[in-house]
Amino acid sequence: MIALDVQNVSVAYGGGRLALRQATLQVGGGSVCGLVGMNGSGKSTLFKTVMGFLPPLRGTVQVFEQPIIRAQKAGLIAYVPQSEDVDWNFPVSVREVVMMGRQGQMGWLRRPGAADHKLVEESLERVGMSAFAGRQIGELSGGQRKRAFLARALAQEGRLLLLDEPFGGVDVGTSEAIIALMGELRREGRSMLVSTHDLGTLETFCDEVALIADRTVLLYGPTDEVLTAENLAATFGGRSPLHAASTAKLEARP
Hints:
This is ABC transporter domain-containing protein. The protein is an alpha/beta fold.
């Protein structure tokens, strides 16, 4: 089954300016797809559209063959935002942040039960944040903050995880832990769309890659077929040091 199916989607902000143009991509069930492109290329717009924050002007988005609204109500989607999209001064503990991931599964009174508390603690332990559960979210380091929101996504139990720049502002140890966690989730049958600038590690965790430039998806497919020097040049125009380093690495492959 296809986890995420985006077909010819266009999105416009106020004033009619297109923020996404006829974008098409698919993420297979139980696979990890990397979304790669420069700042302003349309990555965040695509994420917001899949989350249902922005309605498509044209085209369709389905998650496990369900329209977005139905997929959201069914709890099929979990989201890890970019750090800059979070108000770190908001007075809330790490445990409370993770519990927010359970709200969609609670009853109409929105009171967590024993099963919710159990899953929150398990999610915290899985990302190595149990010892920080009582801390205010604003007191954490960049890597700890990212782990906290990963725990929230785990608590949501979504079958499709959207990770927006999960490696941004974290240390090497946290990056390795995130990659290891993604591998575990994939083996459990979860599907992931991962926006990243870290081209050097894509081959270590991605089954598929989608390249996005000028507000549209240029191409997507198996990682080893998409990540070529020619395709990266079309995506980055040779303007990114990351592109240059990655191109050298790709050209050195046997």
